[in-house]
Amino acid sequence: MCGIAGAYRTTDTVRIERMLDRLTHRGPDGQGVIATDTGVLGHTRLAIIDLQGGRQPMEHDGALICFNGEIYNYRILRDRYLRDQTLKTDSDTEVLLRLYRTLGPGFVNLLEGMFAFAILDGDDLFLARDPIGIKPLYLAQRDHTLLFASEIKALALQADQVTTFPPGTWYHSRFGSHAYYEFAQGWPQNGVFETVERAKNAIRAVLRSAVHKRLLADVPVGVSLSGGLDSSIIALLACAELDHIETFAVGMEGSEDLEAARRMAQYLGTRHYEYVYTRAEMEAVLPDVIYYLESADPALVRSAVPNYFLARLASERVKVILTGEGADELYAGYDYMRALTTPEDLHRELEIAIRELHRTNLQRADRMFMAFGVEGRVPFLDVESIALALSLPPEWKLAAPGEPTKMLLREAFASDLPESIVQRPKQKFSAGAGSMYELARVAEERFDDQTFARERQRLMQRWNYRLPNKEALYYLDTLRAVLPERLIMPEMGVSRSL
């Protein structure tokens, strides 16, 4: 896990060094910049695999790569496609570069993991991003130079406009852009699973495999444990693989997450750590949270605050952490989805929610963990897990009146988890951790009605953005202090769940 920055059609290393200065939090374990005749690549490293040999940018046979992410099947690919080659490292980075030189751009289809990377190969530039957009990548154009970086802030001094590199896409300077992944296969096929019981067996198997892949590391691995269903499932499956696991929870005094996480940690026998924060601490860290998050979306900021404290806590003991991110989008966990009463409407909404994850919850998770040099991994969003979830009849995911959401997922693990966890209602991270309403109260005290009305009108006219409340204005005002509005608004995601 790292931060990358680079430029195509320039040899100006000073520019890339300045960009990397804004990405050092993503890679505290090393930094490098190398120029070729046609471009410059820069890298800040968080060492997870091959701690000594994986330094970047990395060169092979005249080609150069900088890479952010993890490829969980890199050893399988190395043994299958590169067995006649002598590699210099045991890193996934070198495997990526050699696969590109051996197989061409289409090798991206073989990768299992999360990634954003750039390759300079002679006169050519190659960029790629993982299927769902777990790892970020942004582009900017200045004169005849193409710039790219892991975060918007790295491009802020270089360009007037920034665009998001699309998930599931690769770009080659000679062949153009190509969408290599599409999770939406249309309406689920009837008869893939004849019974709910077979579906539950498949869910258990695919998540067990997804967690197994994501335990690959040469550093300590932990689990974010909120005491909710999703994180409890991930913790359960990780404990089945490792003799010792560390779990982490945060919240305000008396928050439901803290108590539920304690019970689950005791049930699993993990080494459990928690941090209790106050309203004053939330206000104090909010500028940092928003600076790293690069969004003013209210729902996202609310959940980013406890995520920030969680990342800070976890960074004291681990460098990799597994989370339950993505389960609500796959199995209809949000309360607002109860209003979708037909299978067609629910399935359509799930597809939209998954497609937008890279600009909402995945952005929050990446930025908060990387702010403290921690790599977040998301087993629910393994491509096989996504394919399975979207192949299930959506009527199995509809929540009956008075019934908790995600019953299919709950029942799949009902025999392995405490009843209190299986039946615990879905809560957004910010609600369970106790921060949801505190920041809204601060915003009400800060802005009068006239200021809010004026800004709401201006933002609608300028950006076609409907400012929902004073809380959103509070966050936007804070973000504008560190990033210009022209870079924020065109790329900012809007959470579908408030």
Q: In short, what is this structure?
A:
Helix content is 39%, strand content 18%. With 498 residues, the chain is an alpha+beta fold. Strand 8 (138-142) and strand 9 (145-149) form a beta hairpin.
Strand content of the residues, in percent?
15-25%
Under the CATH scheme, which class of the largest domain? Alpha Beta
Predict the CATH topology of the largest domain: Rossmann fold
Counting helices, strands and paired strands, the structural category is alpha+beta
* Rg calc: 22 Å
Number of helix segments?
Answer: 19
Question: Can you walk me through this structure?
Answer:
- By secondary structure, the chain is an alpha+beta fold.
- It folds into 2 domains: 2-179, 4-Layer Sandwich (Glutamine Phosphoribosylpyrophosphate, subunit 1, domain 1); 196-491, HUPs (Rossmann fold).
- 39% of the residues lie in helices and 18% in strands.
- The chain contains 19 helices and 17 strands.
- The chain has helices at residues 13-21, 74-81, 92-103, 196-213, 229-239, 256-268, 279-293, 298-314, 327-331, 343-355, 361-370, 383-391, 407-412, 419-422, 429-432, 438-446, 449-463, 470-480, 485-488; strands spanning 2-8, 31-35, 39-45, 58-60, 63-71, 113-121, 124-129, 138-142, 145-149, 163-164, 169-172, 176-179, 221-224, 246-252, 271-277, 320-322, 375-377.
- The strands form 3 sheets. The protein has a 6-stranded antiparallel beta sheet with strand order 2-3-1-9-8-10, with helices on one face. A 6-stranded antiparallel beta sheet has the order 4-5-6-7-11-12, with helices on one face.
- Helix 2 (74-81) crosses helix 3, helix 7 (279-293) packs across helix 8 and helix 16 (438-446) packs across helix 18.
- The longest helix is centred in the middle third of the chain and has 18 residues, at 196-213.
- The chain is globular, with a radius of gyration of 22 Å.
- The mean pLDDT is 92.
